Automatic annotation (TrEMBL):
Pfam families: ARM_PUB (PF25598), U-box (PF04564). Residues 13-87 form the U-box domain. It comes from the Eukaryota. GO terms for molecular function: ubiquitin protein ligase activity. Keywords: Transferase, Ubl conjugation pathway. The keyword Secreted does not apply. Pathway: Protein modification; protein ubiquitination. PROSITE patterns: U_BOX. It catalyses: S-ubiquitinyl-[E2 ubiquitin-conjugating enzyme]-L-cysteine + [acceptor protein]-L-lysine = [E2 ubiquitin-conjugating enzyme]-L-cysteine + N(6)-ubiquitinyl-[acceptor protein]-L-lysine. Functions as an E3 ubiquitin ligase. GO terms for biological process: defense response; protein ubiquitination. This is U-box domain-containing protein.
């Protein structure tokens, strides 16, 4: 079903008992509550989450919030969808059942027990991993049972070759969860734990490398202290490992997503940005920029702007043949934030290198900037564009100056 019933205006009638009494939409995952009434799982969960303790239809108290899947009704709905396919009705998929809290407790107990065979512990971790992958709700159920504490203990309990498979499997599950500040402190309080994670960035398995990078990024994001974040980033190998992940084959897209998140987190501290440049971050960013999805492209451009603020980074980007043309092309193409970061990076480059000014003008930056200052983009982006217009004034073609005075002479507020 395409989300709502409005598109089905060709005369098909949906049986009222297929509709959820709360949302009045076709039920995708019908469940029965303690009063015997059936609702769509999402609707009744939202009803209870907002503080309601009665059955929406009968108004009787919900004595126990146990949702029993109504498989018979769900199959009838699926059959009705197939029968009405010619009217544009899509068959609803069979929903995966949410994780049972009792089962989650058992799996965590098995995973953490050193008295049971290794293969049983691995099996428990793999089942937890599968549940966590299935849905956000499953991750909430798992997290509610102190799973992060259990998984952290397994990841760092014993890092010898005999236990590495357990460590890596626990790491794969842990990388799906945010960590509290105290849990982040557990990781960075022992330098050997950070050293271990950095060593995994060079593991033969891409999956292990990416999971390690994901956990490093989670710890950096969950740590408030700039000094601690700088301490975690203090090492050439961590940048080399993260840049290596960015250069992974495109057949493993999660590497690109995790790699740019980790690189951005590392580059937030100015004192170690030169290590990112030395590790090849500039080449990796420029080569992979067209491959990023929207959110990741914004983060990549923010990282470019950060690295352009240091001398070595600015020089490296200026020397890369794709930098200026790509940044000019991106303006107004991806999002307001992407435009702002691209304009900021161009401003830094053109302020430092006259060659970049000529390249920007040749790439058509003048038209892009004039469109930008007239757009609904952010004020910061417009200020950067105005500053860049003034900077490039001497490089403009003569026939463009007369048409651009209003923009070039605008009052500019430093960003």
């Amino acid at each position: 079903m395409p989300g709502s019933l409005e598109p089905l205006d060709v005369g098909v009638q949906i049986p009222y008992y297929f509709r959820c009494p709360i949302s009045l939409e076709l039920m995708r995952d019908p469940v029965t509550v303690s009063t015997g009434q059936t609702y769509d799982r999402t609707s009744i969960e939202s009803w209870v989450a907002t503080g309601n303790t009665t059955c929406p239809v009968t108004r009787a108290p919900l004595t126990a919030f146990t949702l029993i899947p109504n498989h018979t009704l769900r199959r009838l709905i699926q059959e009705w969808c197939v029968a009405n396919r010619s009217f544009g009705v899509e068959r609803i998929p069979t929903p995966k059942q949410p994780a049972d809290p009792a089962m989650v407790r058992t799996l965590l107990s098995q995973a953490s027990s050193v008295s049971i065979p290794k293969h049983s512990r691995l099996s428990a971790l793999r089942r937890l991993r599968g549940l966590a992958r299935d849905s956000e709700k499953n991750r909430s159920v798992i997290s509610a049972h102190n799973a992060r504490e259990v998984l952290l203990a397994i990841v760092f309990s014993n890092t010898d070759s005999d236990s590495c498979e357990l460590n890596h499997e626990a790491l794969a599950v842990l990388a799906m969860f945010p960590l509290s500040e105290s849990e982040c402190a557990f990781v960075y309080s022992d330098p050997e734990r950070i050293t271990y994670l950095v060593s995994l960035l060079f593991h033969s398995s891409i999956e292990v490398r990416v999971n390690s990078a994901a956990l490093i990024e989670i710890v950096l994001a969950g740590t408030r202290s700039p000094e601690i974040r700088a301490q975690i980033s203090n090492g050439d190998e961590i940048f080399e490992g993260i840049v290596g992940i960015l250069n992974c084959p495109l057949a493993y897209p999660r590497a690109l997503k995790v790699g740019i998140k980790a690189l951005f987190a590392l580059c937030l501290g100015k004192q170690h940005r030169h290590k990112a440049v030395a590790a090849g971050a500039v080449e990796a960013l420029m080569d992979r920029l067209p491959d990023f999805e929207k959110c990741d492209a914004e983060r990549a451009l923010a990282t470019v702007e950060l690295l352009c603020r240091i001398q070595s980074g600015c020089a490296a980007f200026a020397a890369h043949a794709l930098t200026v043309p790509l940044l000019v092309k991106i303006i107004l193409k991806i999002s307001d934030r992407a435009t702002e970061y691209a304009a900021g990076a161009l401003l830094s480059l053109c302020s430092a290198e006259e060659q970049c000014q000529r390249e920007a003008v040749a790439a058509g930056v003048l038209t892009q900037l004039l469109l930008l200052v007239q757009s609904d983009c952010t004020e910061r982006a417009k200020r950067k564009a105005q500053m860049l217009l003034k900077l490039l004034r001497d490089s403009w073609p003569d026939d463009s100056i007369a048409n651009s005075d209003d923009f070039a002479c605008s009052d500019v507020v430093p960003f």
